[in-house]
């Protein structure tokens, strides 16, 4: 672990070690971890009974978190020792389970059709309609491009696509068809629609704060999802999960609970709940099982994507990307602060006589350059705090990816490699220019315009 130096000495109230005191960030103690997580503890409960209930819930959550931690650590150990198969028995089980879910939907569809076409009485035909509606909500979905997101096609950003083509080729994957520019501190890759177009999601708040090598690592990780054996993203498993989710939602007891009405209505509602409860419990159990069965292959696939990224952009860039990913909360607060500042500035210049004489206060750089500059300024102690928080909190957040501190440890354990692919300054400048209109649009959506 990196040693951190306390710049402006203040003393820890718990162990009297020096702590750094930067007003922009949380003051905490690297020796005893005092104030590592400054979010307030839950207040005292109103009654003893509520207190007991809260304690029980806390114990249950803690136990669930411990189970997830154990499993996640086991996957880490297996991948680190090179013992993780792309197809293991759990993977087979998950696919068989998904098959059973699809078969159920298919049977229901046949049942609906039979009732609608050949039912002798109208109540049965109504039942047929009801089943058809159920099948409609359970059907596998191919996904659709979101409406209110900036889309870039090959012609809009030739240099960006040339780079993603090079990355795809180096990894042995297929080229990107559409780039979606979003306002998230995230990126992603997936196949959408009947034509299974390859869609890359690029979140500008993340892209903007990454140095060129790290951007390449990000592209490597995302496009690496095509070749890392991540079955969870395939249509078979994904649509089974979606169907189970739908079953769970449709049979949730709270949906049909009635607190007043005639005796008959209340009795009908109670009977319906009694009928639906087992279906709901079964859907929940199957969802949990499917998640458990795919955790191993899914997380192993993420480590593999990280390795592909490091192999492509160099280990240093791969590690840098992961370290940046840990700064999500810092990016969120910085964006909030920037938005507030811009709001204040707009009010100050807007309340005049309508002339633009107050515009001198506007900074020369755009919002994304400002965000990037703020992020390079994050002190080592704050980065260290985020790393330790990731280690402390894991088991509760984002099950799709392994916790960042483990992803870092995995890469750090590998022999370092140099970048296999590079883009020069002119390429990056051209890509920035191509992304500029999208960047302005996303900045406006986040109210970060000047
Ligand atoms: Zn301390
Ligand atoms: Zn990933």
Write the layout of secondary structure elements.
Blueprint: E1 10-11, E2 18-19, H1 48-80, H2 89-118, H3 122-138, E3 150-152, H4 158-171, E4 178-182, E5 187-192, E6 197-203, H5 204-209, H6 212-224, H7 235-250, H8 263-313, H9 315-325, H10 328-350, H11 367-376, H12 380-393, H13 404-412, H14 425-445
Parallel strand pairs: 4-6
Antiparallel strand pairs: 1-2, 3-4, 5-6
This protein binds zinc ion (ZN) (2 copies).
Residues 221, 225, 302, 305, 401 line the site of one zinc ion.
Could you please describe the fold and organization of this structure?
The structure is a single chain. With about 450 residues, this protein is mainly alpha-helical. Among the domains are: about 1-35, no CATH class; about 85-140 and about 235-315, no CATH class. The protein contains 14 helices and 6 strands. A 4-stranded mixed β-sheet has the order 3-4-6-5. Strands 1-2 form a two-stranded antiparallel ribbon. Helix 6 (about 210-225) crosses helix 8 and helix 9 (about 315-325) packs antiparallel against helix 13 (about 405-410). The longest helix has about 50 residues, at about 265-315. Residues about 1-10 and about 350-360 have low confidence and may be disordered. The structure holds zinc ion (ZN) (2 copies). One zinc ion binds near residues 12, 15, 17 and 34.
